[in-house]
Amino acid sequence: MKFWLSIIYQSERKRLFIGLFWSLLTMLSGVGLLALSGWLITATALAGLAISAGLIVKLDMYMPGSGIRYFALSRTVGRYIERLYNHDTILRLIATYRVTIFKALSHKPLHEIRQTCDSEWLSRLTSDLDALDGILIRYTIPTLATGLVILLVSAFLCFIWFDFAAVFFLTAVLSWMLLIRYSVSQTRGAAKASIAQLNRTRESLISHIKGAFVLSSQDMMAAHQAHTLVELSLFEEHHCVLQKRVAKLQFVTDSLFGIALSAVFFSGLWAVGNEIIEGPTAIMLALLFIGVSELLQTIPEQFSTWGKTEYASERLKKLASTEIETDLTHINHIQAIACKVNNLSTIPASFQREISFTLTDTKPLFITGRSGAGKSTLAKLLFKLTPAVQPGVNIEINEHSLTAISSKSLYRVCSYLEQSPSLLSGSLYYNLTLGLEDVDEQRVFDALAKVELLKWADALPEGLNTWLGESGGQVSGGQARRLCLARLLLRDPAMVVLDEPFNGLDNTMAKRIYDRISPWLEARKSIILLHEVPSFVLGKGVNYQQLDVDLK
Amino acid sequence: MKDKPALAPDMTNISGAQFLKQEVTNQRALLNRSVMFGGGASLFMIAQWLLLAFIAHSVLVDDSSLSSLWVPWLLLVIVSMVKPWLSFQQSNLAQDASAQVKRSIRTTLLNRWNKTSPIALQTLSGGAIASQWVEDIEAVDGYFSRYWPQQMLAVVSPMLIIIVVGYLNWLCAILLLVSAPLIPLFMILVGMGAEHINEKYSLLRQRLAGHFLDRIANLSTISLLGAQQTMSDEVAARGDNYRHVVMKTLKLAFLSSTVLEFFTSVAIASLAIYIGFSLYGAIDWGPAQSLSLFSGLAILLLAPEFFKPLRNLSAYYHDKASAVGAANNILASLSHLQSEEEQYGNSDARKVTLSEHDAKLELHNLVVGYRSHLPLNNSVTTRISKRGLLVFSGDSGCGKTTLLNTIAGYLHPISGEVNLSLKNTHSIAYLPQKTWIKNASIRHNLAIAAPNANEAQMLTALDKLDLTNEITLKHQGLDTVLGEHGQGLSGGQMQRISLARVLLNPTQIVLLDEPTASLDLKSKDLINDAVKELKERALIVIATHDPMIIAMSDIHIDLTKKVENEQ
Fold first, then answer.
1. B492 pLDDT more than 90
2. Which of B237, B256, B234 has the alpha carbon at shortest distance from B245?
3. Do A95 and B487 touch (CB under 8 A)?
4. Total-model pTM
5. Residue B564 has what pLDDT?
6. Labelling B367: which of A74, A442, B387, B406 has CA 20 to 30 A away?
7. How far apart are CA A183 and CA A274, in angstroms?
8. Which of B64, B224, B230, B497 to mutate to test the interface with A (most CBs of A within 10 A)?
9. Is A44–B279 a contact, with Cβ atoms under 8 angstroms apart?
């Protein structure tokens, strides 16, 4: 949590202090209003009695009267400004956190990102970020302001009755610290367990829903949900434990403060009897105590979410503190790619022989082999989707080791059509031009024509603006693959790797598309991963290289 | 905990607020008890302040000695302990009620989704569904555990206080009474706006979650396309938009509590000044003469308590607004689901005859598509029974998958009929093109669709698909854990694992969508062998353009013929 606190301190220091000021003002006004009113009533009552007994008493009614009016106003205004101001601060912070984390994530090596699953990412980014707002509006500002109120009230009490002030200060500070401590230690474990369980429940649900296609036809959805329900029950248990603990803590705190009030009241009246203070002051002391204890009594509730926040901030810290690649070579062209792989478990044939290739010209390189032979592994190594820092793997681009080349510059000059098509939820145009600026619609239509999707796109209700739903729901698998290919055709990389580009297409369409994209392919270095070199390439007499990665 | 089918069957034509009220009716007993304890706490609170004022009056005005007042002192201590205990019970009971409500909504939603056609379900994003089921339902919590009991207490507690204050001094009671009705009025005005914005806020949050899930699932694509900067700008813009909407909600939400704050402060201030002047003797009209330190102090202490339940209510108003927003959201998504279902067909349109005899599949003039005005294919009529292989082939986008979806009962045909004869309605296995791999062990992945298979059968099935070696060689056998992206396995291997599920739980009809699409020749042979084996004991329907499978088919239907190509 320190990490996030320091970000607050660094980026919003001014807002933090201003927010603290408004909180303090509001709290002091509340305490002051009650105390001054109590004093006034008692003082007037005693004065009234004295007057009716025939004594002459002079009591200034107007100073306390305007004091009361002032406190009434400053409390109202202060509260509104304080809450609004501090919430704005935290939302600003959350927005900053969001971007910081997204940036850190997108600079993470891709293979690391893939190791965590989507649903967990989701809960990290949204609910964890939301949990962070507690740091400012629960733990920092009200707590510090309460501490300052204790300090100022004690200082004020010193002028009235020093002994009481000393005892008051010590007990208030002690209970301030103990309350924070106990609230945290009592609820931390339960809160953490409950949020962790909530995430497991969420994952289980997402997985359940994704399985609908497989499960529904056999009427297995109801049976399969059992797992999700078990996770849910566990969450409910943890949640219940947490709530009961918070309620119990509140009960104990409130009882203790109730007894303490009796004690304060008693000692005040005792002091009046011993002529240490006046009657009105005794009532004022009791009311001051009520005001301060009301502030302290909110601590258990405020700190009950500590565990949740801590859990969230720990996980987010791991994400945000990712080191960004530095001191790496940037490349802006591709002269030669040399790749040698020995004894890599994901490429079985590499135990038999060295799997290697060198690419220096624009002759297409076909890497062939059955599925599981490791074609995609080779491509993934090349694009750092699988860490290339493995014994037996040696990849060099322009005679620089791949591990020393910055991913960003690599992706700028090399493009990769992955085996499974991935479309983002967004418009068709958005998907095709992702990462490009101001692409002419005509070029988009040309690219679509090359992959035989022009007619399809024209028939769409909103043309290029048609929204492609979650994972491109309205698009068939083969169409999605072709869209991804079209997306590459709009770019001008120095090298391109196509993993199974014709998967899901019949032979004649594959041939037509290949013919149409040939000029684009021939203008750059290209690697094409396929089960075998297609007949239309063999028949055409194209000049090509081939690397077979099958076991022999 | 028991699953209660508590919700009224109609969850679509009601508003979020009505929906929450229905839930209140279901938990009335617990909630009423909670309010009773809360009312009890109010009574003890009144007793506490009266005792305090009484002691002050006795000591300061009547000059009683502290020791002679031991009974009120003792009572004061007891009362200050009983009051928190009653509040403790109040919150416990309300939380129990809330837990039951959440449970019942969650179960209902889950059951609803289970019965929904996967095609309609697909139109809701996974992230959105999860955030509905997790966050939205958690957002309902505050309504039951805090808002609703407080709403009752906001009436009960001030009434008790008014009676006591009225007894002490009727003018002060009138002063409080006058300021009280203004508050709910103003709150209603403010609340209506806040509720509307909250609804938007909840929708926005859900979209935000959906956006994140989508972008993160595609993070590698984004990086590969060099679009990180664009995307982080997009994320920043979304976050900023979120802040603006939330701030708008808060400006209103805080305004209503500020109004209360204002009334509380003004009431305390004016009561203090009125009582002060009366006691001083500066005011001598009305019931001013009857005021003493006891009644004056008691009224002053009770004044903030008069407004406290209302202030709490306004603090919890945010809970109510979030709950109503979330409930509206849930209902909106249910009605979206219903309209999607109406488009795709919300009941099984197939004619299924239950028969102990051989399975039969009959397609009669069948035309399929997702929108009734956009048929994908020309009508198909065919008939196959007992066992055998039916293959649909054709270009991508010509309706092969859609046909399978229609046969599986996920989609209504645009025209024509699907007639089935099966031992039970659900004896159909479906293997979609996009493999579904759970983040769990291979054993678990196989068992979900084949619950009765034992380890030996699993290994045999994996063996048939040439997976045993690959798995036991590289990983930890059946206990190998697969990620959501199926890391550690190639696309072909994942597809073979999902085919193994079908082999392990042979149904009378098996639908396979492009089973060989990303497999090599050797694996294709393995699949073909499996299909050959399967078609001897079941009806297999395959959508593919793999010539080897087409060659094996008993019936082959080419859907391409009349769908003209571009160019």
1. no
2. B237
3. no
4. 0.78
5. 39
6. B387
7. 39
8. B224
9. yes
